[in-house]
Amino acid sequence: MPIRFSGRASEAYHYPLLLRHLLHRPLAISPSQHIVYRNQFRCTYAGLRERLGRLASGLASRGVEAGTTVAVMDWDSHRYLECYFGVPMMGAVLQTVNVRLSPGEIAYTLDHAHAEVLLVHHEFLPLLAGIREQLPALRTVVLIADGASDLTIPEWIDDEYEALLARSTPDFAFTDFDENAVATTFYTTGTTGVPKGVCFSHRQLVLHTLAVMAAGGGAPHGQGMRSDDVYMPLTPMFHVHAWGNPYVATLLGIKQVYPGRYVPSEILALRQREGVTYSHCVPTILQMLLSEAVAGGGDLRGWKICIGGSALSTGLAREALDRGIDIYAGYGMSETGPALTVACLTSAPGSLPVEAEIERRCRTGAPIPLVDLRIVDDKGSPLPHDDHATGEIVVRAPWLTQCYVGNAPASEELWRDGYLHTQDVARIDPDGYVQITDRTKDIIKTGGEWLSSIQIEDIVSRHPEVAAVAVIAVRDAKWGERPHVLVVPRPGHAESLTGDAIRAWIAAAATAGTIPRYAVPERVTFVDSLARTSVGKINKRALREQYG
Q1: Domain 41-200 = CATH 3.40.50.12780
Q2: Which one of 84, 128, 221, 483 is least enclosed by Cβ atoms within 10 Å?
């Protein structure tokens, strides 16, 4: 018997999943709620809607139409939020440019995306001046002055952002179109080769927004973003839509606070002044905030922070909890839009033994709604959820990028057998909670046995004199590979912390049965800092090249 379909009234509205529809709820229930940028700008959701119309009208006057790529180089601001909505709502494509890439890489991404219009913060003008000749498609540059009044404006600047909005009408006619149209594109910052472009449709971003909101609303003990939160992103808005959270915050109609360039003292002051309760960031940013809070005596109670991008170590989690932060981990990738899992507590805070609760908070987490996540062996066969079997994480979800733009071989490698392959190795417990144990390229094979670099890093991170740690594999004539531990001491401990102390600390974990005895390293190196990618992740490839 064939699949049945219902009838449809002749004038029934076919509701496409477009980003503009995320605005219906906030404009209805919280039009007077504020959106704040540092101490420089404040407007309401009603004001946001007006500015979106002005932005679209202004861009249209500059020749932007459906399919045009509009790139943005800015710090985290209300302007970025306006572009998150206004550009895709026109049917154009928003390119979020990673300003932490090298000039050559930025030029490559702008050219590869065929960006025709660029909105650029004045701090990046010298960079742009050096690469403009490499951008044949670029025809319009709009300056973001950001309140600066003494700028020397190059002759190749065509307009200024606020001036463009001021002379443009707010009455732009946003219309419906195919929900599968590309809304955004950006470029991954992998550790090999040139950056790879990923893109997402309106449908994908709307479904991701709904799933993340549902995951937060379904968390039984208040973690995740809620309708009574005040939101401030601490993940760059050029990185996977700030993990999709600005879309969630807008749909909820809650107060949003944008910090601009990340300065720890200013972030903490802004958080205190505006009453911020929910943020997200990579471990590096959290460590900076904790250090600033310790130095300044800041009170961080009432702040929920989701950590992603890199593993949340138990040492860092304990430090955050001691400062009053409700800390927990999440997981995803640029290619996954990004959210896949979140480690919200299933029992009330304080009901578990301290170590058990911290372990649960630091887990990779449980899949959010609509995510089909499994671990598979080398043959692609699913492995059991027994918290012992380990395999590669493969996923399906309705918002995963379908390809790398203009890179068919990499796209085919990303997608195999109908699943997106993450290259992350993990185990899953009977409750469905995932724990990543390593990247496929970062697993250490010593004497025929596998070692998890992440597990060793977690153990070392708990040492009270350790600020940061990375573990890499180095070649060994006898064992094939051995772990090499790179340690950044806490301030004031560079002289007292020794390699023997680190080895003894790891050996104690081996004695306790946490890790095997062959995990105790021969090599421990103390460094001032660890190489990181443009989004704050530890760059294992660079460390292997330097210390391997």
Answers
A1: yes
A2: 221
